[in-house]
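Example 361.
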Amino acid sequence: MEWCRSLPKIELHAHLNGSIRDSTLLELAKVLGEKNVIVFSDVEHIILKDDRSLQECFRMFDLIHVLATDHTTIKRIAKEVVEDFAAENVVYLELRTTPKKNEAIGMSKQSYMKAVIAGIKSVETVEVEFIPSDDISKKPVKTPPIIDSFGTNTKKIYVRLLLSIDRRETTAAAIETVELASEMKDLGVVGIDLSGNPCIGEWLTVLPALKRARELELPITLHCGEVPNHKEIQAMLEFCPQRIGHAIFLKEDQWKTLRSSNIPVEICLSSNVKTQCVPSYDDHHFIDLYNAKHPLILCTDDPGMFSTNLSREYYIAAKTFGLSKSQLHEMAMNAITYVFADGKVKKALEEIFEDYERKLT
Ligand code: 5GP
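Predicted structure in complex with guanosine-5'-monophosphate:
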């Protein structure tokens, strides 16, 4: 596990509000309990529960959104989440979140995103490279960088953002998110994600927004095949996004389409097993894709929700499928190809991995 922690890693599928520390959620729940907005004892056990079905997860997200959606809290969460990924030696984090509106507290999708960005900029435990032209990259790090047992110096984390469309949204609301993503290209936004409860919403409702994203040259990743909705899976594969997440319930011919399309798959082992979408790690489709040399990236999905981190996901892959250190290293490095950030960032990431290799020899 310690070795997996020391390995530089790239995270491409992590939801902001699924990455909140339990301790932070409990603290927020206590405050709302004291204000009589919620009954703390009713939610404490829900927060601390470990294994949840997919539908229970979405009920939990609704609770998280009650606890966490004001500007100050969003800022705090974004800061903590980046710090937690950096502590696992994640060197590039593509963090996704659904911009939210709440007129009662003066929150617009723009102001929500401003709070997320303010949080990323307020990170103190590690140097954050967020927007190259911004002076935050020159801000001195207040606490010493993390040195692990391999002497790896976690100097920097690159952070970029994906804006998520929630499947519950209308076409107009989804298009609004896409337009916002385009306006925020200079502010660290690199693409669009489609997520939310896979049992809700229609592909045709979000399709115009995804087409608009394509017109605006925003790369797209889709949550695909979390439930056996084969018509939708087919439509998603035919749309040919830059990446897909999960890819669990594909039929034989859809596997063939996926394989020949070479669409990279964001693999979330703990999430898929804990939500019982996949019966066990041994049964996970990771190994078929891996053996077929299909492009894939190990990711966490919701490290807070599933009590995991990216080092642990690499460790699970190694233990379950007998992968060697050099195979894990290769897999981590290959992820550079699939990041949505520009060539300059990819080059910098290559250098980080080269530096790591030099230190090993
Ligand atoms: P947020 O976008 O609020 O930062 O992160 C939480 C949201 O991400 C959830 O409300 C849900 O829309 C989406 N999400 C998180 N995990 C999953 C997942 O495993 N599957 C799907 N389809 N959506 C998810």
